[in-house]
Amino acid sequence: MTRGTLSVGDPAPDFELPSTGGGSVRLSDLRPRPVVVVFYPGDDSPVCTRQLNSYSEGLAQFEALDAQVLGISAQDMESHESFSGRYGFGFPLLADTDKSVAAEWGTLGPLGFPRRSVFIVDGSGTIRYVHRAKAGLTYRPVDELVAALAALD
C-alpha cells in the first residue's frame, strides 16, 4: 500500500507512540475498542485548541460507545504535556515527532505540513471513517464522529 492512500475498508497501520501521562500507546493494544485517531497540526494553535477541547468536552459521548480518542501531532512530549495540562484533555496526546505515522496514514500535505485529519478504526482494526481537511480551519464535530461510531455495529 502506498503512503497516503488509506481509505475506508483498509486495515489501520499499527503504531506505537509516546503518550501524555507517561508510557506509550500502541493502536493494536486498544482492540477490540473502536478508536478515533485525530491528527492535528499543532499544540496551542487556535483551531487545534478548539477542536481538542470540543472532543474532550464530548468525551462522555465517545466513552458511551466504548471508543478511545487519540490526538497525534509532531510536537514533543514536553509540548504535549503542557498543552494537555493547560486544558485538561481527557484523552492522550501522542508525539509523532518524525511524522512517520502521519506519513503512513497520509495526513501530510505537499510540503510535509500536517493536515487536520480524523480516522475511525473499528474494533477489528479496519478503517471505517476518514476525513482529511483540505484547509485546516475547520474540524469534524463531535456529533458527526459519534454518529459514525454508532453506525459501526
What number of structural domains do the residues give?
1
Describe the biggest sheet?
5 strands, mixed
CATH architecture annotation? 3-Layer(aba) Sandwich
Distance between the termini: 27 Å
Strand order, sheet with most strands: 5-4-3-6-7
Number of strands: 7
Overall morphology: globular
The number of helical runs is 5
Round the mean pLDDT to the nearest integer and report it: 93
Helix residue percentage: 25-40%
Task: Tell me what the structure shows.
The chain has 153 residues and is of the alpha/beta class. The protein has a single domain, classed as Glutaredoxin. Helix content is 28%, strand content 20%. The strands form two sheets. Strands 5-4-3-6-7 form a five-stranded mixed beta sheet. Strands 1-2 form a two-stranded antiparallel ribbon. The longest helix has 12 residues, at 46-57. The radius of gyration is 14 Å and the shape is globular.
